[in-house]
Amino acid sequence: MKRLFSYMKVHLLESILAPLFKMLEATFELFVPIVVANMIDRGVSGKDVSYLIRMSILLLVLAACGLVFSIIAQYFSAKVATHTAQMMRDDLFAHIQTLSWRQIDGLGTSTLITRMTSDINTVQNGVNMFLRLFLRSPFVVFGAMIMAFTVDPHTAMTFVVAIPLLFVIVFAILLITMPLYRKVQKQLDAIMRSTRENLLGVRVVRAFNRQESEKKTFDEEASGLYDRQIFVGKISALLNPLTYVVINLGIVAILWLGGQQVYAGALTQGKIIAQVNYMSQILVELIKLANLIILLSRAMASARRVDDVFRVVNGRKDGTAGFPESETGGASIDFSHVLFHYEKDAEPALCDITFHADAGSTLGIIGGTGSGKSTIVNLIPRFYDADSGSVSLNGTDVRTIREKDLRSHIGVVPQKAVLFHGTLRENMKWGQKDASDQEIYEAIDIAQAKEFVDSKGDGLDLMIEQEGRNLSGGQKQRLTIARAVVRRPDILILDDSASALDFATDAALRKAIRSQMGKRTVILVSQRVSTVRSADQILVMDDGKLVGHGTHRELLNTCREYQEICESQMTAEEIQADRKGDD
Ligand SMILES: Nc1ncnc2c1ncn2[C@@H]1O[C@H](COP(=O)(O)OP(=O)(O)OP(=O)(O)O)[C@@H](O)[C@H]1O
């Protein structure tokens, strides 16, 4: 909440003026029943037409003033609310960028999107309505009661009984419905999560003919939400009949008490009408107040959800050293007894990993699915930190190197090819901000993407749609490789990023990297023997453990797991030939 108020403080003046103008509007409303009473008592009873006309004009003036003040108040409150939401969204976005991969894994992408969008919208609505109503509604309720006393203290006693009774009804219903509304909000979250998952995976859903079962699951979730909303709606709906009963009983009491006084000549008919009008104003405001409280409770829950993300702080210290560049180019990599868990109580994803790769060498990493290959490479640019042991580049622990420097010397091509909406040139410049067109073309050439880029005819102005929808899987992969190559990094990591390429293109890519990129350390993560076989050193991973390392030939003769992988992908003759070394 503190954070919310600190945003609102930026518009302190507007935050004060909005409720004050709303109160001014209410003040004008409070005079209306008195004017109407006078119109009845003097204008109608005395048949004074000119008085009636003057009072009608006065009513119009009161309405116009009320309208002007209301518009001003709404302008201020909308300004504070929208700017508060904008600042909160900007800060939250910036904050999420600072979180570690582990923290983002823990929070989950769906919930971060919900918090950035629907939760902040709810906060915006809450701030808007709070500024407009938090002073106005109580002011009208108590103002109407005071005005009723000035009109006639005797009949006004009805208000003393009715108002507390109305408050009890409104707050009892709120007390019951507020926790239910919170549950509704949570259920809405779940529906949003499954909607997002389904829409993103719509092709997979169809490919596996899961439409019917997905529809059924969605139906169940949606009807659960429907039932809960209907239930809470029914309880909320009790608010109107109950408050109307109290108000109508109050009006009956006013008419009964007032009627006797009218007979006795102590009260006028106009004054009775004024009391009835005040009672109606109170009713309307109490209902507005109840709705405001519901909205505020939702807004507060949303603000807390946003705050929960702000409270996740990346305590990881950034290093202070620059990148330890080697004179020869590339960087040596050392893992020393590295242990790593994704979650505290889970099995380690990496267990006592120790190896050395020379600067400028090619390192292959092979192993079954889930064996820890990607995890190893993710520790090099510090996407994750080792729980124990160390990762060093050119002899310097990565934790001591400034993250920005570290990452600007490493080119990562992730397993999943991700491109962004924009031109090809813009996407390539993610690798190197100031890359020239020629440098970009060279990278595209190394990544074996030149042919298809040329065939599209737009050169570097080729428009790439959101997530690269207008490209094939293989084309996207080649462009993500080109994006990493543009940077001319010291370490180039290809994490299974040639999986959608045919064998010939995969081989041409590796050859081009070797011949055109100078001395760099290249890491090739793959499940294909053909991709890693010519590497200077191959690491064989099995269930988080390093079960073998050496060249293709050494491993064929020494590592059982590597032999099994080779046997599943090569003929016995090929294996035999490779063992002997006649490539
Ligand atoms: N973000 C994550 N949170 C929790 N566990 C994870 C996460 N990423 C990977 N794991 C687990 O860590 C282990 C190693 O995963 P990793 O991605 O390194 O395997 P891999 O060898 O690269 O597999 P593949 O070839 O299928 O990509 C697996 O058991 C996996 O389930």
UniProtKB/TrEMBL annotation:
The ABC transporter domain, residue ranges: 333-568
Listed transmembrane segments: 20-40, 52-78, 133-151, 157-181, 238-258, 278-296
UniProt subcellular location: Cell membrane
Gene Ontology CC: plasma membrane
Ranges for domain ABC transmembrane type-1: 16-298
Keywords, comma-separated and alphabetical: ATP-binding, Cell membrane, Membrane, Nucleotide-binding, Transmembrane, Transmembrane helix, Transport
Main location: membrane
MF terms in GO: ABC-type oligopeptide transporter activity; ATP binding; ATP hydrolysis activity
Topology in membrane: Multi-pass membrane protein
InterPro entries per record: AAA+_ATPase, ABC1_TM_dom, ABC1_TM_sf, ABC_transporter-like_ATP-bd, ABC_transporter-like_CS, P-loop_NTPase, Type_1_exporter
PROSITE patterns: ABC_TM1F, ABC_TRANSPORTER_1, ABC_TRANSPORTER_2
Record-linked SUPFAM superfamilies: ABC transporter transmembrane region, P-loop containing nucleoside triphosphate hydrolases
Protein name: ABC transporter ATP-binding protein
Species annotation: Bilifractor porci
Lineage summary: Bacteria, Bacillati, Bacillota, Clostridia, Lachnospirales
